[in-house]
Amino acid sequence: MNDALWLLMKMRFRAWFRRFGKNASNVKGALMMAFFALMIGCWFFGLVANRVLNPKHTSGADPIVVQRFGGPGMLAMCILIAVTSGTKPPMLFTPAEIQFLFCGPFTRRQLLTYKLLTQLLMTLPFSLFMSVVFRDIAGSYISAAIGAVLIFSFLQLFGLAVNFTASNFSALAYTRFRRIVLYGILGALVVLGVFVYQRYFTGGDVMQTLKAIEAQPVIHTLLSPLRWYSQVVTARSFGEFWPPALGALAINAGLLALVYVLDAKFLESVSTASEKTYARIERMRRGGSPFHHAAQSRTIRRQVPSFGYWGGIGPIFWRQFVTAQRSQKAFILMTVVMLFSSIGPIIALVSRKKVDEGVPWGMAGTMLMMSLFVHQFLAFDFRSDIDRMEVLKTLPLPAWRIAVGQLLTPVMLISLVQITIVAVLFALLGTIGPLLIIVAAFAIPFNLVLIGLDNFLFLLFPARMVPTTPGDFSHAGRQMILFFGRAIGMLVALMPPLLAGGVLYIATRSLFAAGAAAWLMLVLICWLPIPLIAWAFKRFDVARDTPP
Asked: Is 338 in contact with 418 (CB distance < 8 Å)?
């Protein structure tokens, strides 16, 4: 590789430490990094203390079981990569790398080597972290660390080989080729499933059936190379370690050679794909939501009618609602995915004549908990206006009205998602009619508290929704602080409604009276985040607090 590329890698490594020091130079950054280090330190101290206090602790998993299922697990990952990564770029270059390296005196192979080494170095910290996670199935820490590096390197190289193979075909040819391959795999799986069912499955244990399939000579031989990686992790002596380690290293070397053979057109495909990807990431950083980029460069076919002035609240609400309306496909897709994540249990329950009454309630509760994380993706509020704060501050409106206008869109959307989920489950399974009434009544005030706390904490600790650089510990610390702050805030906000409902239920033994009291208390409390947001908005300094 060219000496200039080695120098560039060295300078990028030093730049990471400079950013680390810059983030720690101010009070907020230092506190966030200290909090992140404290949480990681407590977790790591627990692992070390457990190992020191219990030195005779043996592995919690049988190495034979880990090795047996390690091969099929690696095969499943390979199939997933082959199916999902065909349309993605083989690797990504930053805009600066495209501008300065592609036109520089570097060969295609040198640029490929530079990027492969960069990806390998980025894999090492994660592999070391996973080696600690693998402690219960690993023979030793060293074998776990080396095994993790080999596994993640294999997955990266396999993905590159698949992508380079796809880029060497034209779009039409690859589409037809992929369809033929996928249909062939699907047909083979159907035939294999019928054969297995007829020969092995007799109504007994499913695990015994899987073991019988895996024990077939052909399948066992095909999975043996992939099983080497799990054998490296579970090795307890050097004699057990070096044969599978050499085999896994040989596979990675073969994939690396294949990548170099297939790199003929990767610069042309990577440059265009990288520019589009980083443009999308930049829009996400400005917009604050992965769904905002879907609203770009589209012909507007439907117009949202004006909501009225409402003392200045209406235009702000209308602007955020227009952005959400342009991202409606992604919003609908997210709701459908949440519903289809439980389609299997739903079908199984619908097909049964008698359904346990507690199961639908548990499924609805689980999906409602999932919906609580949706607000991170429906950031149609201050979080999406981080680069427009100077415009909002020049509006001739009181701060509390701006806050209300910013909160209405995400509150309405998340409430709609929650009500839709419970309504669909009620239509399919029944028995959860009371939950549907409760969600319809409590969704809007509850989400107003949730979104209000998020925006209040965001204005106090402003940051991009997408981190500026990988390995930004201050961003990780900020996310932890926001998580704990949100949890404490929600606990404080929900205590009065719960106490009011509980006291009234003890006094009257009426669920309706208790629910009404809790609802009235929540309606009174849900407006409290608005003055807090207004105060945080007024103290927000555009020149000082806007993140880079």
From this structure: no
Domain spans of the chain? 9-51, 61-275, 311-545
Return the number of other C-beta atoms located less than 10 Å from residue 267's C-beta: 16
**How many Cβ atoms from other residues are within 10 Å of residue 369's Cβ?**
9
The residues near 238 (Cβ < 8 Å, ≥ 6 apart) are: none
Full DSSP string of 158-209: HHHHHHHHHHTS-HHHHHHHHHHHHHHHHHHHHHHHHHHHHHT-SSS-HHHH
Contacts with 230 (C-beta within 8 Å, 6 or more apart), sequence order: 66, 67, 69, 70, 71, 73, 74, 147
- Give CA–CA dist 396/154, Å, rounded: 58
Assess whether pLDDT exceeds 60 at residue 452. yes
261-316 pLDDT, tens digit per residue, is 876 556 655 655 555 655 655 555 555 555 554 444 455 556 777 788 888 888 99
Q: Tell the residue number behind the tokens 């380690």, with chain if given.
A: 245
Q: Got the DSSP string for 534-547?
A: HHHHHH--HHHHS-
The whole model's pTM is what? 0.58
Q: List the structure tokens of 106.
A: 């570097």
Determine how many CB atoms are found less than 10 A away from the CB of residue 74: 21
Half-sphere exposure of 246 (CA within 13 A, CB side): 5
pLDDT per residue as tens digits for the range 525-548: 989 999 999 999 998 888 877 776
